[in-house]
TrEMBL record:
<dbReference type="InterPro" id="IPR047876">
    <property type="entry name" value="SHKBP1/KCTD3"/>
</dbReference>
<protein>
    <submittedName>
        <fullName>SHKB1 protein</fullName>
    </submittedName>
</protein>
<dbReference type="GO" id="GO:0045742">
    <property type="term" value="P:positive regulation of epidermal growth factor receptor signaling pathway"/>
</dbReference>
<dbReference type="InterPro" id="IPR036322">
    <property type="entry name" value="WD40_repeat_dom_sf"/>
</dbReference>
<dbReference type="InterPro" id="IPR015943">
    <property type="entry name" value="WD40/YVTN_repeat-like_dom_sf"/>
</dbReference>
Length: 168
């Protein structure tokens, strides 16, 4: 953490891991989240495995869980207090802080992503842009899969290689 009077201070040290950390995601504020008003979260990943910790204001950390995506991760980040993992192989994983549930969903291979508010947008190689409202964590009633909605489809099916979204 950064304080004006003393500069950078160490807040948390993870246990020693048996693998190289390839991705790190930090959520600095979780206002009104299921983990408490002042908790912070940090996630690390290597290949297909993710470890998520909750960090308390006293500097202690507790492991929330170890999650598997099943394919190599390309990105690891937070949207609000939901942890998101994506893979170019066409999988997304979402950890919901309210339900404390890890959900993996198969999608079309992902080329790009962006977050806008509570929406996760995925640019895919079939020319489609899909979105998920990760705050509501919508699940389909018939099969309990994560509801991934197609927002746009390019008529020529050119891959969506970059996304940049700004909501006012």
């Amino acid at each position: 953490r950064m304080t004006e009077t003393s500069g950078w201070q160490q807040v948390f040290t993870s246990p020693r891991l048996d693998w190289v950390i390839e991705r790190v995601a930090l959520n600095a504020k979780v206002h009104g989240g299921a983990l408490g008003d002042h908790d912070k979260m940090v996630a690390v990943a290597s290949s297909t495995e993710i470890i998520l910790w909750a960090l308390q204001t006293d500097g202690n950390g507790s492991e929330i869980g170890v999650f598997q995506l099943g394919v190599p991760l390309e990105a690891l980040f937070f949207v609000g207090n939901q942890l998101i993992a994506t893979s170019h192989a066409g999988k997304i994983g979402v950890w919901n802080a309210v339900t404390k549930h890890w959900q993996i969903q198969d999608v079309v291979p992902i080329n790009s992503y962006d977050a806008a508010g509570t929406f996760l947008l995925l640019g895919c190689n079939n020319g489609s842009i899909y979105y998920v409202d990760v705050q509501k964590f919508p699940l389909r009633m018939k099969d309990n899969d994560l509801l991934v909605t197609e927002l746009y489809r390019d008529p020529t099916e050119d891959a969506v290689t970059a996304l940049s979204v700004y909501l006012t």
